[in-house]
C-alpha cells in the first residue's frame, strides 16, 4: 500500500522529500523562494510560487480511503479514476498566485471600473442560493440549492456576505473576464491557474491528502468545509460532517484559517476555484511532464479545492470536479494567477 506523508517546504533549491522515500513517493524540488509578494490595483495580494516538480494525482487504494472515511460507500472510492495515474509534473516557471480567493469587494470594484456585467445578470437567469424553506426533493434537479433564479447572483447567494468573503455565483467566463481586464489595465498577464499549477500550489511540497496532513480532522485548522456549523442546515448529511466547528455555517472571510507552506489561504474549502483546463477523465495518462495545459477541447472546465459545503473527502488536494463554463453556483468562486516577469 502506498503511504503518503506531509513534507516540510524548504526555501531554495532543496529536495522536499527524504532520499529514503520509497520509489512510489515523489521527488519534489523548489527552485525559487516563495517569499516575494505583490499587490495589484484591486488590492489583490499575490505570492510568488516557485518553479519545481511534483507528483500529481492520487492512487490511494479504496481500503486506505475507507479506513479514514468509513461513513462513505465504497463505490465513491472507485469513482476516482480521473485522479490516476500519478504522474510527474514540472512547473518550469515561477508564477504569482492569489494569496486569497477573489472577494466580493474586489469583484464589485472590477464591475464598477470595467462596466462588465456578470453572466448571472447579463443572461437574465440569475444564480443559485440558500433558501431554508427550499426542498430539494420537490425540485426537478434535486439540487441542494435553489435556482437558477434572478433573485440570486454574486450579490446574493442567499446567506450573508460582506466584502471580505469570497465571491460566488461567478461563471468560468466571469473569471476569465476579470483576468482579461486586469491584464489590459495593468499591462501584466493575469489568468486562471492551470490545473497542474493549482495542485502544485495547493500541495506546497506535500503528498498528503491535504496540505495539513492525511487526517480529515486536520482541516479544522486550515479550511472551511462541511462541519458541525454547516450541518445544522443539512442534518441529513450529519455523518459526513467534519467533527468539530470552524465557526462558519457558510463562507468565511478569506484568510480566516492557517495558510499552506507557500503562504496561500483557503486552498481547501471556502469556495471551489475555477481553473483554466478542460476536464478529461483520461488526460493524466497522456499529460506532458512540463507545464501541462490540459486537453485542447472539452465541454466542462475543472474546478478545485472544495467549499464550505463540501464533505472533507472531496476537499483533498488531488480531487477533481468540473462544471460547464456558463455554470454559476453558490459554492464556486475565483483565484487568479499573475505571470511573473
Please sum up the structure shown.
This protein has 341 residues and is an alpha+beta fold. Helix content is 16%, strand content 16%.
- Unreliable stretches: 1-34
Number of strands: 15
* The CATH fourth-level homologous superfamily: paralog of FGE (formylglycine-generating enzyme)
The number of helices is: 7
CATH class: Alpha Beta
Roughly how many Å apart are the termini?
43 Å
Q: In words, what does this structure look like?
A:
The radius of gyration is 19 Å and the shape is globular. The strands form four sheets. A five-stranded antiparallel beta sheet has the order 3-4-7-15-10. It has a four-stranded antiparallel beta sheet with strand order 1-2-5-6, covered by helices on one side. It has a four-stranded mixed beta sheet with strand order 13-12-11-14. The chain has one domain: paralog of FGE (formylglycine-generating enzyme) (Alpha-Beta Complex). It is built from seven helices and 15 strands. The protein is α+β, with helices and mostly antiparallel strands and 341 residues long. Helices cover 16% and strands 16% of the residues.
Offer a few descriptive terms.
globular, five-stranded antiparallel β-sheet, four-stranded antiparallel β-sheet, paralog of FGE (formylglycine-generating enzyme), disordered N terminus, 341 residues, alpha+beta, 16% strand, single chain
